[in-house]
Write a structure and sequence with these properties.
Layout: H1 2-60, H2 79-86
């Protein structure tokens, strides 16, 4: 008799745990579909826009060797040079 009651209690507890797990899975799936996928798409679109803008600006700039991006400010040294001077590289 006691064993039957224990089995019944365990079965109902297992059902409760499975129900909560299923609800949690459903909630996380909805959260993923509503927020993370659109954010990823926005980020991908922005990346594409930025890379296309950079491509256009670099094609208009015929002096690629003298561009501001490739020049260092006066007295600036590279990270590699800093590491070499410290003896870390």
């Amino acid at each position: 008799m006691f064993t039957h009651q224990l089995c019944h209690a365990l079965r109902s507890l297992l059902t409760l745990v499975q129900t909560r797990a299923a609800k949690g899975f459903a909630a996380l799936t909805i959260l993923f579909l509503l927020f993370l996928i659109p954010i990823q798409r926005i980020a991908a679109n922005e990346t594409e826009l930025v890379s296309s803008r950079d491509t256009l600006s670099s094609s208009h700039n015929s002096e690629s060797d003298d561009s501001q991006e490739s020049r260092k400010p006066e007295g600036a040294i590279s990270a590699r040079e800093q590491l070499r001077r410290r003896g870390s590289f």
